[in-house]
TrEMBL record:
PROSITE patterns: PROKAR_LIPOPROTEIN (PS51257). The keyword Lipoprotein applies. InterPro entries: MdtP/NodT-like, OMP_efflux. One of its GO terms (cellular component) is plasma membrane. It is found in: Cell membrane. This is RND efflux system outer membrane lipoprotein NodT. NCBIfam families: outer_NodT. Its main location: membrane. It is a lipid-anchor. It comes from Novosphingobium subterraneum. PANTHER family: BLR4455 PROTEIN, OUTER MEMBRANE CATION EFFLUX PROTEIN.
Amino acid sequence: MKRQIAFAALPALALGACNFAPRYVQPTPPVPQSLPQGGVYPALAGTETAADALGWREFFVDPRLQQVIATALAENRNLRATLANVERARALYRVDSAALFPIVNATGTLSAVQGTAGRVTDNFLVQAGTSAYEIDLWGRLRNQSRSSLETYLATDEGRKATQIALVAEAASAWLSYAATADALRIAEETVASRRSTLDVNVRREANGIGTRLEVATATTALNSAEAAVADFRTSLAQARNALDLIVGKPLTDDLLPTTLGAGDQIRDALPVGLSSEVLLRRPDVLAAEHDLKATYADIGAARAAFFPTLSLTGLFGFASAGLTNIFNSGEFQKTVNGSLRQRIFDGGATANNLAAAKASRDAALATYERTIQTAFREVADALARRGTIDESIRAQSSLEANAATAYRISQSRYDAGVANYLEPLDAQRTLYSARQSLISARLTKAANMVELYRALGGGLVEVTRQ
């Protein structure tokens, strides 16, 4: 009886057993403590950033864009695959956790024995028990479970990173479509203007006050504009195809933007703090840290393999000659056995498993630090662009205004007969280029804000599982 009590108490004793996993200490981030500022970088506020706590609906303020992003989060196939991988990691963690508990099986048997007098005797047996339940004296099973937990958490952080990237990708594609629509409209307006100019030159030649060279030059300019319109129409169709792929289903026309305008479909400012600690909260950085923690648990499991394993086998049940009174017969049977196993020789497999676990830890540490460095660069690059884009837009806006003025003056000079046709044509080309460049600058600013939002870890939403 004392032996049975001792075996029964072993699972409780195992709860306080050894754990050979090394103690985890968060590595010091291999980046400056503050985000860059000064020079091309904008001056940053001294408060901690709230960008990663800002919901994407608060950042993307256009209702159509909000609906597009929501649809992408529900329909995008890459995100669905990521969610499935999260569920798989969760299930595997639960499988490893189940090893901490004994597996209990139940059996029932019936046997009939015929005696010499022809009488048949029935024997009934009902039993339940566990076989080879390992007592986790050295923490091997707990570290395996811990490793699976960290792997699951890393996968879930990967889901968040994929989600944030999808929000940014959908928004960027939507804004690119808007900018392409603006570029197409300018090209179409240029075609209409150059077609009108060609008609004027044809009439001037017919009346003897124009030349064939002016007609040919005007025709060339018109053809160039028509080719640009064809290219932009192709680009607009391709931009829609790309947006449909990102979203996961075809979008209706009412959800598509007609113009980028000044890019006010998103917030024009984002709170950014001085500390680079915000990078440690990015999902991809957290995922890398969970992977690193998993390797610490793997080392603990590998170290525990050097020590003997203690297995417990227990069986209890009832036996009776009659089924109706099997639980009342008082014939209760029970057995408890324990076995200790120590590996003597394995050709160095156990030692090499430990060496491999330590090498995996070193690799995971390097990956974690590299992930932080990459995050720092992404934020620094976005801040560098943010610090100069407004100046670029001001210059492009001034260029467009002056190019428009120059075109009007040169056209008036041509109409008055004091300038040849090449003067207004060159001015019109300059104006066309300036208008297209202004659209590109505005798109760059909008895309930069989206990238800064993503790089700071913003855009997170809760996932609704089916």
